[in-house]
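Quick one: C-alpha cells for this chain, please?
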Amino acid sequence: MREVKAETIINVVAEMCEEANLYLGDDVVNALQKALEREESPTGKEVLRQLLENLEIARNEKIPVCQDTGFAVFFVEWGKDAYLAGEGSLEDAINAGVRKGYTEGYLRKSIVKDPLNRVNTGDNTPAVVYTSIVPGDKVKIIFAPKGGGSENMSAVKMLKPSDGVEGVVDFVVNHVKASGANPCPPIVVGVAIGGTFDKVAVLAKKALLRPLGQPNPDPFYADLEQKILKKINDLGIGPQGFGGRVTALAVHIETYPAHIASMPAAVNINCHVARHVERVI
C-alpha cells in the first residue's frame, strides 16, 4: 500500500484552486482564437477579441479570469492500493485545500451554508466531490470551478425511449435557445444521455472536462456532437448574446446504459471560461 498524506492533498488542491482561476487551458484559448477567425459579426468579433485580451491580462497580472470563481467541484480517482494518512476524511482534506487556496489566492467566496438561510461560509467550502475507486496506487484529482451563471442554465429531462435521437437534439438545442445570453456565450455544452436522474446530471458535468473539441470516441456520437453544435450556432445568439455565428465552442456527449423504460438526458452548460485542471499524485 502507498501512503498519500492528507497534507499533500491539501496543498495540491490549494494550488489547483488558484491555477484554474488564473490561467485558462490552451484548448479553450485555441478554440476562442478559431472562433474569432470564423465569426462573421463585427460585434461578435470585437467581443471575442476582448475575451482573449481578458485571458492575457489575467495570465500576465495573475488575477482571476472571471470574478465568479465558482463552486469548487472535484472528480477524484483514488487508486485502491493507496491510503490516506492523517486526520480526517478525503473530503476534509479537499475542503481544507479549497479553504487555503481561495483565501490565500484572494478568490471570491461564493458559497452559502444553506440554500434558504443564505449566509456565506466565507471560504468557498464545502466543495462538491465525486470519488471513484480505480486500480493502482495513484490519485488523480480534477478540479473544475463552476460559475453560477452557466450552472443556472442547466437542465435534466426524462425523455421517453421513443423520443430517439431527434428528441435529444431538440431538447439540447431548444434549451440553449431558451438560455440565450445568460450563460455568457460562447459556451461549452456538456450533454449526457442514459443512466438515472442523478447519474445523467453528473455525466453532463463530467462531459465538460474533456479537452475542448475532442470528439466522442464513438463515431455515431461524434457525428451527433457536430450536428447539435451546428444547430446551436445556427441560432444566431452569438458571443455574449450580441448575435453572430459562434454561440458554442463545442458540444461534448457522454452516455450510460439506460433502463428499458426511460431515457434521461441532461445539459450542463459552461461559459467560455471553461476552467479545469488535473493533478496526479
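The first helix runs from residue 6 to 22.
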